[in-house]
Amino acid sequence: MKYEMIINGVNFTLEHNDFENHFNIDDLTLVDGSNLYGEAATISSVMVRVGLQKDELSKMAASLKYKVRQLENDITTSKRVEAHKNSNKYSMTVGGEVIYVKATEKALDTCFMSDPEWKKGMSELIELEGDLAKFETLYWGVKSKDKKLNNFMSGVNPDYFSERCIEGTYNGITILNKK
Fold it and tell me: Is 0.90 surpassed by the pTM of this model?
């Protein structure tokens, strides 16, 4: 997966292998005592991947929120224009019947809530924000694991570390010990 961005006019690309589509949350958040060294070697990569996914969801939610707010503005503006032309009343359909509503500020604040496109956008936004909350929870779980592993590994030098690291897959990342 690639993340491309421009910061102060400089292009940056962050790249990592694709994150598995299915993983066990317990595997990512519990410390496997059988290979603390493998856990320690892979946890920061997992934390970065989860953090990048969380940030991507956050960006998507902000973009969708902007689109929904823009739709609200467009609908409210069109109702104001309609009311200006129609004795301070705008039309809306309720149960298949067209009714006319006096264009008060309170009525205009909610006039978009019956619009099918707005409802769809809000449903998508609620779902996306729920997914974002789940990834934030996962991120904090992985961060907690990282702190625990840092405490376990304090004072370990690289040679000692590589001698004790067991080959295998930890946190969704494969370790091959090249001695």
Answer: no
